[in-house]
Amino acid sequence: MAELNIGYYAHHHGAGHVTRALAIAAAFDGPLTLFGSRLPEQVELPNVQLCPLPPDVAPGVEGEAFACLHYAPLGVAGLRERMGLLVDWFRRAWPCLLVVDVSVEVALLARLCGVPTIYLRQRGSRFDAAHELAYASASRLLAPYPEHLEEPATPAIWRAKTCYAGSLSRYAGQRRDSLREPGTVTVIAGHGGTAFSRARLVAAARACPAWRWTVLGPVAEDATVAPANLSFLGSVANPAPWLTRAELVVGSAGDSLVAELADLRCRFICLPDARPFDEQLSTGRLLAMQGLALTGETWPADDDWPELLARARGLDPERWAAVGDGEGARRAAACIREVAQEVLT
C-alpha cells in the first residue's frame, strides 16, 4: 500500500490557524504538507513541507457569497492559482487526506476531487448552509477544545462526528506558575482585527496606577501619551515569557490565545472581538460559565478596571486543567492518522 499523504490547509485570517497546524504537525508521526497564504518562510519540523498559496483577493473585486459558499468571487487570478496548486497536490499525493482549518470552499474542492477531509470546528452559531455542507462532506470533524466547552445548540449528528482534542497550542506542558509577578498585566492584541486601541489601554492603565501593564501585538499608534506603568512592545514571536510572568492576562477570545492561556494556566480577562458567527462572543460566554475567565461583552468603563482586576485575582487557574492537559496535539494527530487509515486503506 502506498504511503498515506497528509495535507493541512491553514487559513490566513489571524495567526492562530498556522500556529495550531504546527502544534499538530509536531505531534504527527509522518510527513505533512502545510498549505496557506500566511506561512512562515521556514519551520524547524523535519516532517513538514511548506506549500505557500497566493492570496485569494484582488483590488476592486467583491467577495461574492451564496447560501452554500462563503467566498466565491469571480475573476481573481490568485484564487485560480491556489485552487490549482491544491488540485495538483491531490493528483500527485494520492492516496491523501486534507485537514481543513478552515474554508468551506477548500473542503468542498477536496471532496469534489474524491479526497477525504477532516474539518476543524469553530465557535459560534455556525448553523448556516455552507457550514452544514462542509461538515456533512467531511469524514471527521476536529474540535480544538474539550467536549464540555461545546456549543450548546450543536446538533447530535455533529457531536457524534467530532473528535474533541482539547486545547491545541505551542505551549503544551510549559506552565510556570512560580514566575508570576504580583501587580502585572499582560495584554495580548490579536492579529485578526482588534478593539484594543491605544487610547483605551492608556485609560485602563491610568485607572490602575498600582499595576504594571505590558501590551503585546499590533496596536495602532496615535498621539495618546502612555503613563509610566504602561509599555507597548509590539508584536513578538513568542509571548510566553510575558504570559507566564503576568499575574493577569487581558485578551480577546481567539481559539489560539485561549489554548495558550489554558496550557500556561493564566488568570484571564476576556474581551471578545467582533467576529463572524459571534465566534469570540460565544467563546467568552462559555469560558465565563465554566469559571475560566471574566468576560466583558463590551469594553470596560475606565473606572471599572480596578474592580475587574481585583476580581480576576480570584480566578482559579487550575480550572484550565480540564481544557488543556498537554495532550491536545497528540489527540489531534492520532485522529488524523486514524481517519486516514479508515478511509484510505
Automatic annotation (TrEMBL):
Q: Which domain of life is it from?
A: Bacteria
Q: What is this protein called?
A: Glycosyltransferase
